[in-house]
Amino acid sequence: MRVRFAPSPTGALHVGGARAALYNWLLARGPGEGGDGMPGTFVLRIEDTDRERSTEANVAQILDALRWLGLDWDEGPISQVANTPRHQQALAQLLADGHAYHSDATAQDVKAYKEQHGADRGFRGTPQSSGAVRLRVPGQGVTAFNDLIRGEVSFPNASMDDPVIARADGTVLYNFAVAVDDLDARITHVVRGEDHISNTPKQLLVFQALGQTPPQYAHLPLLHGPDGKKLSKRHGAASVQELRDAGYLPEAVDNYIALLGTGFAPDEEFFTLQEMAQRFRLERVSKSPAVFDEQKLRHLNGRHLRELSTEELTERLERYTGRTGLRAAVEISREKIQTLADFWPLAGFLIDGPVDDPRAFAKVIDADGGRDTLSAARDALASVQEFTVPAIEAALRTVVERTGLKPGQVFQPVRVAIAGTTISPGIFESVALLGRERTLALIDAALAK
Question: Which residues are marked as active site?
Fold first, then answer.
């Protein structure tokens, strides 16, 4: 099996493109076609024929995204534009064999043709000595293929225009270049989004004109947001880099997008890349649009995060935040965060001191009885002999019992005093980590406000 991922470097790699890359990678790294155990080959091709929009920066961004996702490639990255001599050779062959012809027909000419012959009749041009190059479409029959996800798909030839495969200046267009490149790379399976279905018959006709066997095709359903509309920026992070910046782990992103529309059982949702490669099958992919729900991604990311050792999670958080010395804070925070981005708002005060949240202060400490409760908690903590988590908890619970208040009414003023806000890791663990001197100083500063 030889598969390819062929992005156009006209922007960042978005979630839909990442899913196509992942599915191709899983096929190449899986048990082989029909479970034959033969290793596959994952080819990376950069379709950069749009020279105005294709940039080196965008290529670098795509490669960076693939590397972050852990999707290594066996061949490439191959520049499509570098294959121009081969495209020209194939184009000349089709012209010489009569499978293609020059035509200077304009869009108005095509419109007039359809008005005369019917809107469902494909345009057929008259061969000329110059102009753009069009591929001849058979006048009868159908161009059909067995989609590995959707089943039989066919297009009546009579309704298809003779497609332009090269401009008048000789530069080839997308569908021709793609077919030639897939042929030369010996691609056996093309797995891509369903927005390419209309391109497939044109590419099949190129293979037919060249006298070559085409690859098998599988078209993935598009991604929708939870509202049922096509996935876009309004649904949250759209590109791979945005997901990374939002604090998601690459293994969680891989895991989640692998699940989109693949029909895994409810109890089958937590996988490593290698486990997914062994389980993934194209025939399990649904024809229906898959729903990308960032809340579900957050949940899955939290599971992957908690699978990391404290040392590994600390290392990732230190890279993410650009800070060091986080291990102790990570240890008491790890059960409360779902993304790397959750860590600093929760536990940053343990490193940099309390944040300034006047609303939290007013609501908790300036509220009725808040200062008196905080003062009582301060006295209880000051009397603790051994400043350990169990001793701290016992001291604060003594205040609860003595005052008749609810636990939150005692713990929350302490939390706001040391964190500056109403969220933190466990209050007893946070106080213990800060230590007696620092905790009492922060409470004194809060009482003095």
Answer: 233
